Amino acid sequence: MALFFAARQAYSSGMFDDTLLSAIRARFAHVDDCPFTGPRIFFENAGGALTLRSVVETSARFAAIPDNQGRDNPASQALVAVIDRARADVRRFFNAEGGAVLFGESGTELLFRVIRDACLGAGPGDVLGSTVEHPASRSAAARWADVSGRRHVLIAHDDATGRVTAEAYAAAVSPETAVVTILHTSPVTGMGMDLSAIVKAVRAVAPGAIVIVDGIQHACHGRIDVAAAGVDAYVVSPYKVFSRHGYGLAWASDRLTAMAHDSLVGGPAGNWELGTRDTGAYATFSDVVAYFDWLGGQVSDATDPSARIEAAGQAIHDHETALTRMMIEGTDNLRGLASIDGVHIVGGADNAAREGLVSFWSDNTPAAEIVAALNAEGIRTHTRKADHYSGNILTPLGQESCVRVSLAHYNSPDEVRRFLSVIHGMGL
């Protein structure tokens, strides 16, 4: 996609100006208040982003419709049109050519399904992944590599930077590699992987490998291009990209779709979905794509919808990068996390791969106490523990836990200032 990006943002830092940021925040439910506790700052976006108001309205509207798809009546035909539009919107959002759009139970469930089908359908060879991966893809790869009689090869990620590189994949891939799993962005370190470079390194040695990407953490930060990356599957969890819980979303290439997978005997060829799905789920992702389109129109002069979506992704990245730099380096008279004695930032303080997330620990105060103190001041963060979700990152660092502060593009500089003020008040 060609990017048509105009300089409509107020600061050289890349942050949205106050007018646009207010317009952005107005489109989200509970942007500055919790329905249970009252006013709060939401820095727990990696656990689930805020929901677009349009998604809330769409969910309620479709929940009341009694008709199903596939019937010979106008209401049913209207539902089919909604689904068809959503599939086209997903393709535009992913910049996907061909293949199939899948709606399922959750992002994790879809990762298990596409990894299973790849392991059972690919030619002989290994399954290659990395230790930075979320357990959703790593567990699925371990299980189905074993069931299909394959080696599961894991590349060690770099503890210092919190990511795995194309060079590391290049050193581990072989002509016998049949299936490859890649984490686009880590929900613990916050670092994005160079997806295109990794896929290029894999394809140079194993051109026929099936490449599956966990994009669950990356999606709300924008800039997805599966056509340019050349992958076979890309999976997201819509509740982490401004939609709601209750469904997962993926795109699968033509060759992965052609492999055997669960389907009804005599049913349509290439159909991935089982049973009747919620039409409202499809419709709410169209709301997400419409929001990216709107935002792209605010930050660029692009007229093509795909170009506006790309422009929105770049603007989101720039705003979030500026916010995380404030948090790490400080602002005004507030010192950043990197300047506080005894505070350590996962992935390092200066890391260009960071995407809207800062994880840290203190030598002096346990992570759970920091999170509780922030919560008492109306700042929502999260403790990541060295368990089955985050132990792959924290255990090599010798840490039992850390504080995860995860931002999104609707967060503001004032919220970061408030966070730093409370942190300094704790006397870490």
Automatic annotation (TrEMBL):
SUPFAM superfamilies: PLP-dependent transferases (SSF53383). Keywords: Aminotransferase, Pyridoxal phosphate, Transferase. Residues 41-419 form the Aminotransferase class V domain. GO terms for molecular function: transaminase activity. Signal peptide: none annotated. It comes from the Bacteria. It holds the Pfam family Aminotran_5. PANTHER family: CYSTEINE DESULFURASE. This is Putative aminotransferase.
